[in-house]
Amino acid sequence: MKKIILKKGRDKSLLRHHPWIFSGAIKRIEGTPERGEPVEVYNATGSWLARGAYSPDSQIVVRVWTFNQDETVDREFFRCTIENAVKLRHSLPGFASNFTACRLIAAEADRMPGLIVDQYADYLVVRFLAAGVEKHKSVIVELLAATTGCRGIYERSDDAARIKEGLPEATGLLCGEMPPEEIIIQEYALRFKVNIQSGQKTGFYLDQRDNRDYLRRHAAGKTVLNCFAYTGGFGLAAAVGGAAKVTNVDSSSPALEMTVENMRLNGIEETCYENISADVFCLLRKFRAEKRKFDIIVLDPPKFADSKSHLAKACRGYKDIAILGFQLLNPGGQLYTFSCSGLMTPELFLKITADGALDANVEAAVIKRFSQAPDHLVSLPFPESYYLKGLLLQSR
Ligand code: SAH
User: Is 340 designated active site?
Assistant: First the structure.
C-alpha cells in the first residue's frame, strides 16, 4: 500500500474535507506510486485521513477521492459517483424542460477531481484535467455512456492544467458517434449553435445561463454593450428581450462569426446589433473618447487570476474595466459585472467594483448579485467551487 504521510499540523483542511493536498504539507511518501494511482493519506501521528489520486508533477500532489476508509476506488465507486451527479442534475428545477445543455460533472464539487463533463443535447464533452481521472479514463467514459445514453463522447482535454499534471493535451472522439460540427442547444428562450470541437473550453459557457436569462427579461428598449461576448451570449439574450441595439465585443473573430449565426438562428435582424472584434480594454477607452454611452453594459471577462500570485494584477484588470464601464453608462444605466476567478472573493470583488465607481465618479447601488447556474455545483468543503460572482449595479 502506497502512503502519503503529512507533516505535523497539516491535516486541518483534510479534516474539513477539503480535497487538495499541496506538496508543502507532505512529510514523506512510502512506496513509489504511479501517476494517478490511489494512495492512502495519514497524518503525522498515523491516523488514516483519506484516499486520493497521486500526481507527482503537480503542486497539488493528492486530490482526494474519498474520506471514507471503507470506500475503495473501483468501478463501483465511479458508477455511484457518476450516477449521483447525473441524478442530482435531473432533480434541479427546470432541468428537463428549460434547457438541453448542462454541466453533469463539476470536478471536485462532484467528487471527481479534475473531471468536467458537459452535456450538449445528445453528446457529452469531457475534460480530464488531473492525473487521477486520466488514469481511470476508460472506465469513466464507459460509465458516462451507460448512465446518460448519450450518442457520443468527445474529449477536449486541451488545457494548460494538463501540463501541470504532467499529461499531454488530448482531443478527439472517445466513444460512440462523432458529434456534428455544430450542435444546437436550447437555453430558456434562446437557441445557440455550439462548436464543441473548436469552441473555447467545452464549447460554451453554460454557467451564465440564468444570468443571461435575467438580462433578457430586463433589456427591452435599451442600448446594450456586451463586452467579452464570446458567441453572443448576453447580447443575444438582450436582443431577444427586445433591446433597441446590441454591441458585442470580443477579441475572437471565430466567436463573433458564431454570434452572427446565433442571432440569425433566433430571428434577430442585422440592424439590431453590431459585432466588434477588438480588445475590450482599448475599445472602451476609444468609446470614452468618443463619448459613446449605453443603457446597459455587460462585463464578463475571462479568468484574470490563475494563482494567488496573479491576484493583484487581476484586481487591477477588474478595476480598470469597472471604471470604464461606469464611465460609459447613461444616467440611470446598469452595469452587469462578473468575475469567474475562484480566487476572487465576493467581498473583494465588491470592493474593487466600489473603487471603480468611485474613480469613475459614478454613484451606484447593488440591486442584484449573480452566481453560477446550479448545475455548476458548489461544494461546501471546497469553497473554490464557488467561482462565478456577478453584480448588477444601478447608477444614480
Ligand atoms: N459572456 C460570454 C462568455 C465570455 S468568455 C458568454 O455568455 O458566453 C470570455 C471571452 O472574452 C472569450 O470569448 C474571449 O475570447 C474574450 N476575451 C478575452 N480577453 C479579451 C480582451 N482583452 N478583449 C476582448 N475579448 C477578450
Answer: yes
Q: Is residue 365 part of a domain?
A: yes
In a domain, 123, yes or no: yes
Three-state SS annotation for 270-328: HHHEEEEECCHHHHHHHHHHHCCCEEEEEECCCCCCCCHHHHHHHHHHHHHHHHHHHHC
Question: If you measure from the C-alpha of residue 1 to the centroid of ligand 1, how many angstroms do you get, rounded to a whole number?
Answer: 46
Q: Please list every protein residue whose CB sits less than 6 Å from any atom of ligand 1.
A: 200, 205, 208, 228-230, 233-234, 250-252, 255, 279-281, 300-302
CATH assignment of the domain containing 115: 3.30.750.80
pLDDT tens digits, residue range 129-178?
999 999 999 999 999 999 999 999 999 999 999 999 999 999 999 999 99
Residues sharing a CB contact under 8 Å with residue 240, sequence separation 6 or more, in sequence order = 189, 190, 216, 266, 268
**Distance in Å, CA 298 to ligand 1 centroid:** 11
- How many structural domains compose the chain? 3
